[in-house]
Amino acid sequence: MSGPExxxxxPGQESVWDYPxxxxxxxxxxxxxxxxxxxxxxxxxxxLRVLETYHPPTFYLPPGDVYTRALRPVRETSYCEWKGSxxxxxxxxxxxxxxxxxxxxxxxxEPYAALSGYIAFYPSMLDCTVDGEAVQPQPGVFYGGWVxxxxxxxxxxSVGMDGW
Length: 164
Fold this sequence. Notes:
Elements: E1 14-15, E2 24-27, E3 32-36, E4 39-44, E5 48-51, E6 58-61, E7 71-80, E8 84-91, E9 98-104, E10 119-121, E11 127-130, E12 133-134, E13 136-137, E14 146-147, E15 151-152
Parallel strand pairs: 1-15
Antiparallel strand pairs: 2-5, 3-4, 3-11, 5-6, 6-10, 7-8, 8-9, 9-10, 11-12, 13-14
């Protein structure tokens, strides 16, 4: 019995199977937008991408390009072996508060210090776009990767990839 196989990337695509471990942090000049209930939460061309083996990219947005008044800090945290302790936010743009729809690292470990205070959003809860393309959420409950036509998988969280 074999596991899932890498989908070869086409022109202009990246395979998440080629992303490194530990993850790579890089600047992205792409236009990233996040909306909640029709309210623009973020609009930037200064996002950072985290690229980790088997995961679609996760975009982190500079706080100056995020409507932070809609974010409500929560007490819950989690821990990433690479970046450290993550803090979460509910997103409140009405009529329904979206629980733990965003997160940040206030004091990330090296070499991810540039992420400090940048905010990531779960595309499973919000309307996210990259250069105008609607983002699909990474499969799985916990993951925050952004799937676009520019990445191939299969992705961690997909059927058959749970233990990876």
